[in-house]
């Protein structure tokens, strides 16, 4: 598509919101408090970066958007599940998420844990039942997302992140944590669209894979920068939380200038992986720049 992806962001965010509304149980269904909490976790003003990456990669590879809905929805459900757990007192103990009380503050800890626990299997249910997609591809999608959120991905990264609090780490160790706790799910969002493409060479698949890995780490470094420089009212959560928790963050360990430099370097590396795709990758290029240049 020739028009800027920026002009289609609202369309895609509305589309994924509609699909999420269809998938999530209504708040009027028993147990009402649990279902209401699940919806609170999902419909809380997020930018939907991960679903947008699914759709942008789909545009690059000419994958029909109706096939992209399932991974877009499933990965956003997994992301919402992870944020609820991250905010708990046993983890980061946050009071705000996207400018609203965190789920355990709005409801209670038990409800927050149960709501997050319910979002995860719902995501895999979505991936297992995609009309028009062969069973082996659905199985590969399930495996991809399961790996991204398991002990070798997001959950393992969170464990390493907690263990690193108060410690001094080298840049490569910090990036390893980032690649797991944040990058793995972003990478899965990008790669999910490649599994639905019927015209992708191994070389191009490798380039998309590398793009997803680079931009996933850049996303987390940018988050760290915003934690230092951002205003609570703008970023929607308490700024300075990384310093308060003595997180092994990129700016905290290597300085804000080096964090900016590395973030820009990863952006360049990710964009270089798209060179062979020409104008087909315009949406991914726009989204990669947005991830690194965003203000919240």
Characterise the protein shown here.
The protein is globular. It has a single domain, classed as Farnesyl Diphosphate Synthase. It has a two-stranded antiparallel sheet with strand order 1-2. The protein has helices at residues 9-23, 32-42, 49-61, 65-87, 103-106, 109-127, 135-149, 154-163, 171-195, 202-229, 232-235, 241-244, 250-254, 256-272, 282-293, and strands at 96-97, 100-101. 69% of the residues lie in helices and 1% in strands. Helix 4 packs antiparallel against helix 6 (109-127) and helix 8 packs antiparallel against helix 9. With 296 residues, it is an all-alpha fold.
Element order: H for helix, E for strand:
HHHHEEHHHHHHHHHHH
Counted up, domains total 1
The tally of beta strands, per DSSP, is 2
CATH C-level class: Mainly Alpha
Low-confidence stretches: none
Q: Could you say which overall geometry the principal axes of the C-alpha atoms support?
A: globular
- Measured distance between first and last alpha carbons: 27 Å
Structural class computed from helices and strand pairing: mainly alpha
Helical residues, percent: 55-70%
Kindly list the characteristics that best describe this protein:
296 residues, single chain, two-stranded antiparallel ribbon, globular
Summarize the structure.
This protein has 296 residues and is mainly alpha-helical.
Helices and strands, with pairings:
Blueprint lengths: L8 H15 L8 H11 L6 H13 L3 H23 L8 E2 L2 E2 L1 H4 L2 H19 L7 H15 L4 H10 L7 H25 L6 H28 L2 H4 L5 H4 L5 H5 L1 H17 L9 H12 L3
Antiparallel strand pairs: 1-2
